[in-house]
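REQUEST ID: PR-0412
SUBMITTED BY: lab tech R.K.
PRIORITY: routine
TASK: structure prediction, single protein chain
INPUT:
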Amino acid sequence: MGDEEIQKMVTLLLSRATMLAQHCPACGTVLFEQGGRIICPSCGELEVREEGQEEKGKEEEREKEQEGGGDEEVLRRKRSELIAELEGERDLDKVLRILEAVQRIDSILGGRR
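STATUS: complete
OUTPUT:
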C-alpha cells in the first residue's frame, strides 16, 4: 500500500465514509462504504456481491488464514485490530500512524506470498 492509497483512505474517512470489516477481493485493501457504494481506495468502486458470493468469499478468506503459519496469523490478527481501531478514530495523526502500521504489516505479509 502506497502513500496514494493511504491518502485516499484518509480522504474517505474525512468525508464520513464507513470503513468496513471487509477487504477488496482483488488487492486485499480495506473497503469503505459511502452513499451505498463500496469503494476500494486502491481499485476504485466495486460491484456489490450477492449474499451467497459474499459468504463464500469470507469462507475462502478464513481458509487462507488457517493455512498461514503462526507468526503470519498474528500479523493478520493485529492488522484486523488496527483496522477496527481506525473505524472510530477521529484524531488524524493517530489515523495516519495506524495506517502506516497497517502498511508495514501488508509489506511483511506481501513478502511471504
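NOTES: The two ends are 15 Å apart (CA to CA).
REVIEWED BY: pending
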